[in-house]
Amino acid sequence: ILNVEQSPQSLHVQEGDSTNFTCSFPSSNFYALHWYRWETAKSPEALFVMTLNGDEKKKGRISATLNTKEGYSYLYIKGSQPEDSATYLCALRSGGSYIPTFGRGTSLIVHP
Amino acid sequence: NAGVMQNPRHLVRRRGQEARLRCSPMKGHSHVYWYRQLPEEGLKFMVYLQKENIIDESGMPKERFSAEFPKEGPSILRIQQVVRGDSAAYFCASSPVGTGNEQFFGPGTRLTVL
Q1: Which end of chain A is flanked by fewer CB atoms within 10 Å, N or C?
Q2: What contacts B104, CB < 8 A, 6 or more positions away?
């Protein structure tokens, strides 16, 4: 059983603040890391798929980095907006498996 | 291009009844995954199917649960003789042939067992 940890569990920030959170995972046999954004009452929406050590991906104000040697990925949100409020999930795939192991997510609330 | 469809969105069953949850993948996707989200927990993998084949069911309870993805029609997750502990949100995701990469999620079915 793979242990995918996300921290913090929840985060409250003010509109305009920049924020970041962490996904930690076992570094051995790494294949890919996925980030999803999950708004309440909706379905998880794919943000990034990261496969290479040192990968950096960006989508608007959201970016992510990957360190497969030490087993972590950071998700950054620049200038948070209330519409960024959601749970951000990471999911690890190891050893070429199609089956991802999900973390429990970081719940972000952005206050206007 | 419609997204992943799941129905029903909400399902209420009494203990001992059967629950059938349906998932229609995105057009062109032949890989389907079912996940369960129990209260206060994350998404847990249950089963991975391709058309007419179960590829990996390692996350599915051995008893009362079954899944299929027929040649025609939606994928179905079937729970027989439901118990209160089966109450959860069940999500389906699909991905295109041959990549196994990005998964597209449906809106989920929330099962409540009375």
Answers
A1: N
A2: A46, B3, B4, B26, B29, B93, B94, B95
